[in-house]
Design a protein that fits this description.
The complex is a heterodimer of chains A (676) and B (387).
Chain A (H helix, E strand, L loop, with lengths): L1 H5 L8 H8 L8 H4 L26 H5 L12 H4 L11 E2 L4 H14 L11 E2 L9 H12 L52 H4 L7 H29 L5 H26 L2 H13 L1 H4 L17 H11 L39 H14 L3 H14 L2 H6 L4 H14 L3 H18 L5 H17 L3 H15 L10 H5 L6 H21 L4 H13 L3 H14 L4 H13 L3 H14 L4 H14 L2 H20 L5 H21 L3 H6 L7 H5 L5
Antiparallel strand pairs in A: 1-2
Helix pairs in contact in A: 10-24, 11-22, 14-15, 15-17, 17-18, 17-19, 18-19, 19-20, 19-23, 20-22, 22-23, 23-24, 24-25, 25-26, 25-27, 26-27, 27-28, 27-29, 28-29
Chain B lengths: L3 E4 L3 H12 L4 E5 L30 H19 L4 E10 L16 E7 L12 E10 L1 H14 L4 E3 L10 E2 L3 E2 L2 E4 L16 E12 L6 E4 L21 E5 L6 E5 L3 E2 L8 H14 L15 E13 L4 E8 L18 E8 L5 H20 L10
Parallel strand pairs in B: 1-2, 1-9, 2-6, 3-11, 9-17
Antiparallel strand pairs in B: 3-5, 4-5, 7-8, 10-13, 10-14, 10-15, 11-12, 12-13, 16-17
Helix pairs in contact in B: 1-3, 1-5, 2-5
């Protein structure tokens, strides 16, 4: 950590970024978060070294980097900061791993009980020099910059053989990078495939050509196979040469190490008895573990959208600001702690309102699964839930609950907690109306997601209420009594409700394991949320990793793991988990936001600001759509702005910080030297 | 929407809010008494006869740093608003010769400092034998307070009049929303505000007589022994040593504030006419010109108003401190109005207990308080990742 902080020599180097580069970890998609992508301008900015030729630095210094292969521990990498770089232009650009392979290996690893091995040993990519990039690439670059969206979407493609022989350079071009291959542009380009052989000529294609994508994907897989064979044999030859083994093994090591980190947790799945032990320890250790009270009372204000307007009004009047409602605010608290929802606020003039419903639903889902602008997906789903009748939904076999649930999830992923809570609350109403039968999965996911939204807002009682509802709907035998403010009054311990709820989830998990030898991710998420609320980050971490054992590609879980690590004081470790989430979902605004928070807490403020600006730039697409209600927009993004201000204040950029508020032009920050 | 809430709109609260705003931090002010409402008795700031005359007890006293910063920064205020702030001479007169080590700590801070001894050719005010002389700032307290309030509003800082009973409430006031940082500049309120309840806070009653005397444009202080009341004094019989001072107000009215009253733990805001008469007499003795060119006695001084204010004093001096706390630790959470979520970890910067030094502390205190606020805002405990 010392060298972390000390690494910033006169602001000319960026410690985290160097780590990202030197770690040799799988960050190819993530590099726009940690390292410049090829679309970065070759500017002279000290913060973004030129991403030009990359090769494997056969330096012995690199071995030191990997001496401690703990997956989430960046601190061992800090040693790298003090080491000279191999060359000004050199950096490791590790390869990426495609989903099918990853999944297969994961599965294999799980069944074998050891870590996944068969990643290509040599994953160091040589990125073609910028001059060799395709015209498409350049076009893309100018396009994205012209649109004011410098945050590079990974647009690396399986390089045509004619361009550079990837294998000669150790380039494992097997993968249509997650997101990369399918990553639609934010905003206007959202439905365009990027995996294109002649991309420039196809820039105008509006429709997603699934066939073409499939073909390309298949081809990419072949490439991968060829690449792994080649690289494997190459690696064998290279085994004896200096430094290569470590370098080569590290990208694999990233995932392997991740798996290693999960393994102990996975093993614990076989020892449910230990849970009980842990839990009883945990409950006996109140003084240390429960330093947080947890009651959340009525919050009539959650959901107040026109705060901004209110205050502007006050300013306009110029008199003493005595907003309405202040005196009426000692209202009667709801006993279940759930804030009164005034219903969902729809964007007006939604551009998607003229699109056919089934297509809208399909496209929104495609964005969620494959990648793209979450803000756009949110607008699509809004339009869908507003316009679709029960009959419409029945035709495409979608329940209202499911639609609301997805909308809420999209908002939460997009770091818009309040719309997320409102959507989930609507979904909760629908669920009661439609009945839970046949929707257990949706209900579990939605209610745990809603509970998490409440936890993020420190509305613990509301979260407990929702978790109880999940139990009573899906696992009624374990539900027990509903938590309430009144019942809290009966106990001496303010944590009694959390403990009692955690006990129910534990007994459910135990029963499920005994009956089916399986782990239910939703139950783990519920339990993890409860531990998190009680500041028991160790136990919470265990729950996330348990759930990840079942759903290793669940980026929400990776982000939750990261947030738990971060709030438990391990921002450096959290970064790796966020990175994994972003590898899986490059436009995952919340993970980008969290990354900004982690950087702020680590003390790399410029990096922090750039991540936060990147998160805001994802939101700002929204303004290009037809949301004309500024206050809705503002309140959607305010928590990001607020964190950005802190980073700017920490950088002593007071004036800029003062301008950092909803409605500000992001170009102002670009002009100030921030790249995002 | 806001990064912090400032409780209190006295000179301390307003100065801190403005300093935070200038650093790019979004703040809102919540106060029981509003700066513009200068008739509020619950509010010390507008009543002060107001100049820079440091009470700091040497350089080891943190107030000396605040006062130094304020002395320097008032230069800018004076240039912008000469009607509010102006530099005038001050004589601090005394009977007993002071030793070298009793020299004030600020001799290098203020302009034109001189250690004077009276002579027949150059007598000192009140015919006292000794004086410290320097040039210092005077402020128009009510107008300056109002000016700070207007400046805050013009910069978009809302000032919301609202009475709160507990510190916890401030972290989630409906018109402001959730914040993790509160600046406690409640002055005397810190004695009763639930969650602070600082028993060291006490009122130090002040009473002044506002007079019209355009021909007096200097400060004269006779406060010998005033700041160090004897421990063994017969407390029932004796007030602190009687002091007197006069401080002109900037502006065309030609007003001068006459004072010298300091009574601890007296909450009365009624005017004590006996004390007013004592102040007028003592001030007349220091400066007969107060009664005008044709004045014969203190009775010829033109009285404009009698004012009483309660200085927000604190044993051991002002409290400037960042405290990390958890909401809902005091008593039942059910007692907290509104939807305050217990268990949230938050911060508070305490900035209260300045006593009669509020104005001269204000700009420096604001700087240091803002440093603490920034320290908190960029700390991990106030920046949470989201699940």
């Amino acid at each position: 950590m010392q060298s972390f902080l000390g690494g910033d020599k006169g602001g000319s180097s960026n410690p985290l970024k160097q780590i990202g580069q030197r770690e040799g970890a799988d960050n190819s998609l993530f590099k726009d978060r940690f390292a410049p992508g090829p679309s970065s301008q070759p500017s002279s900015s000290a913060f973004r070294p030129h991403p030009q030729i990359t090769h494997q630095p056969p330096s012995s210094s690199s071995s030191a980097l990997h001496a401690t292969p703990h997956p989430f521990n960046l601190s061992h990498l800090s040693a790298a900061l003090s080491q000279p770089q191999v060359g000004p232009q050199a950096r490791i650009l590790p390869a990426s791993i495609d989903h099918p392979q990853f999944n297969a290996q994961w599965e294999q690893a799980r069944s074998n009980g050891h870590s996944p091995i068969p990643f290509p040993q040599n994953q160091i990519q040589a990125r073609p020099p910028i001059q060799q990039q395709s015209g498409w690439s350049n076009d893309f670059q100018s396009f994205s910059q012209g649109k004011g969206k410098g945050r590079a979407v990974e647009h690396e493609q399986p390089q045509p053989q004619s361009q550079v022989n990837p294998y000669q350079n150790g380039y494992s071009g097997y993968t249509p990078h997650y997101g990369g291959g399918f990553q639609p542009m934010y905003g206007a380009m959202m439905s365009q495939p990027q995996l294109q052989q002649q991309p420039q000529s196809q820039m105008d294609n509006q429709a997603l050509n699934q066939k073409e994508m499939d073909d390309l994907f298949a081809r990419a897989e072949e490439d991968y196979k060829a690449a792994s064979e080649k690289t494997q044999s190459q690696t064998e030859q290279d085994q004896d040469t200096d430094g290569i083994q470590e370098i080569g093994s590290d990208p694999k090591g990233d995932l392997e190490a991740v798996w290693e980190s999960l393994k102990p947790e996975a093993e614990r799945l076989n020892k449910l008895a230990e849970w009980e032990k842990d839990f009883s320890q945990f409950t006996n250790d109140e003084d240390d573990l429960f330093d947080t009270l947890n009651e959340s009372l009525n919050r009539s204000d959650v959901g107040q959208r026109n705060l901004d307007q209110q205050l502007h009004l006050d300013r306009d009047v110029g008199g003493l600001a005595v907003p309405d409602g202040l005196d009426q605010y000692n209202g009667i608290a709801r006993d279940d702690g759930v804030p009164q929802s005034r219903g969902y606020d729809y964007a007006s003039n939604n551009v998607h309102d003229s699109t056919e419903l089934a297509a809208l639903w399909t496209e929104a889902n495609r964005i969620v699964t494959e990648g793209g602008s979450l803000t756009q997906a949110g607008l699509m789903l809004e339009s869908f839930v507003r316009r679709s009748t029960a009959q419409d939904r029945q035709q495409i076999n979608v329940s209202a609950t499911e639609a609301w649930s997805l909308l809420g999830r999209v908002h939460a992923m997009d770091e818009k907690e309040e719309p997320a809570m409102r959507a989930f609350e609507e979904g909760r109403k629908s669920l009661v109306g439609e009945g839970v039968r046949g929707k257990e999965g949706v209900a579990g996911e939605m209610l745990t997601n809603l509970a998490i939204s409440y936890v993020n807002e420190s509305l613990d009682l509301a979260a407990l209420t929702v978790l109880h509802q999940y139990l009573s709907l899906v696992h009624p035998a374990h539900a027990g009594q509903a938590p309430s403010k009144t019942s809290l009054g009966d106990t001496n311990s303010p944590w009694a409700l959390h403990e009692s709820m955690a006990e129910r989830f534990l007994s459910l998990a135990r029963e499920q394991w005994q009956n089916t030898q399986s782990v239910d991710p939703n139950v783990q998420v519920g339990l993890g949320t409860l531990y998190y609320m009680m500041d028991n980050y160790e136990e919470a971490r265990g729950c996330w990793t348990n759930a990840l054992g079942e759903k290793p590609d669940d980026y929400l879980l990776w982000n939750r793991l990261g947030a738990t690590l971060a709030n438990g004081g391990n921002s450096e470790e959290a970064v790796d988990a966020y990175r994994r989430a972003l590898e899986l979902k490059p436009t995952f605004t919340r993970a980008i936001f969290n990354l900004g928070v982690a950087c702020l807490n680590i003390g790399v403020y410029k990096e922090s600001a750039e991540h936060l600006l990147a998160a805001l730039s994802l939101h700002s697409n929204q303004s290009q759509s037809d949301r004309d209600d500024d206050s809705v927009l503002s309140s959607d993004s305010w928590s990001i702005w607020s964190t950005l201000r802190r980073a700017l204040v920490a950088l002593n950029m007071n004036q800029l910080a003062g301008n950092a508020e909803p409605g500000a032009d992001l170009n102002v920050f670009r002009q100030a030297g921030f790249e995002f | 929407m806001y990064d912090a809430v400032v409780l209190g709109s006295g000179v301390v609260g307003l100065s801190i809010a403005l300093e935070l705003q200038s650093r790019g931090i979004k703040v809102a002010i919540v106060a029981r008494d509003i700066a513009d409402d200068s008739n509020s008795i619950g509010f010390a700031s507008p009543w002060a006869g107001c100049n820079w005359f440091s009470f700091a007890n040497g350089l080891s006293d943190p107030a000396s740093e605040w006062d130094t910063i304020t002395y320097k920064k008032l230069d800018k205020v004076a240039r912008e608003r000469p009607d509010l702030c102006e530099k005038v001479p001050v004589w601090d007169v005394f009977e007993r010769k002071k030793r070298k080590e009793e020299e004030p700590w600020y001799t290098d801070v203020v302009d034109d400092y001189k250690d004077l001894t009276a002579s027949p050719s150059s007598p000192l005010p009140g015919n006292k034998p000794y004086a410290h002389y320097f040039r210092t700032w005077i402020l128009h307290a009510p107008k300056y307070t109002k000016y700070l309030g207007q400046k805050a509003r013009s910069l978009g800082i809302p000032i919301i009049q609202h009475r709160i009973s507990s510190l916890d409430e401030a972290y989630n006031l409906p018109p402001i929303g959730k914040v993790n940082l509160v600046i406690n500049a409640t002055g005397l309120g810190s004695r009763s505000l639930v969650g602070v309840e600082d028993e060291k806070v006490y009122p130090a009653r002040g009473q002044t007589v506002l007079v019209k005397a355009p021909w007096v444009r200097e400060c004269i202080f006779h406060v010998e022994g005033f700041f160090a009341p004897g421990e063994d004094a017969d407390e029932t019989a004796k007030a602190p040593p009687q002091a007197a001072y006069m401080i002109p107000r900037p502006g065309p009215e030609g007003h001068v504030v006459l004072g010298g009253h300091y009574r601890t733990n007296d909450w009365s805001t009624n005017t004590d006419l006996v004390e007013a008469e004592r102040i007028l007499k003592d001030c007349y003795n220091l400066c007969p010109r107060l009664a005008g060119p044709n004045g014969k006695s203190w009775k010829d001084i033109e009285v404009v108003a009698h004012n009483v204010g309660l200085r927000p004093a604190r044993e051991g001096g002002a409290r400037l401190e960042l405290e990390r706390r958890v909401i809902g630790q005091q008593g039942s959470t059910n007692l907290i109005p509104g939807g305050v979520s217990a268990g949230r970890k938050v911060g508070v910067v305490h900035a209260y207990g300045v006593g009669g030094a509020g104005f001269q502390n204000s700009l420096g205190l604001a700087e240091n308080a803002s440093d603490l606020a920034v320290q908190y805002l960029k700390s991990a405990s106030s920046n949470k990742a989201r699940l």
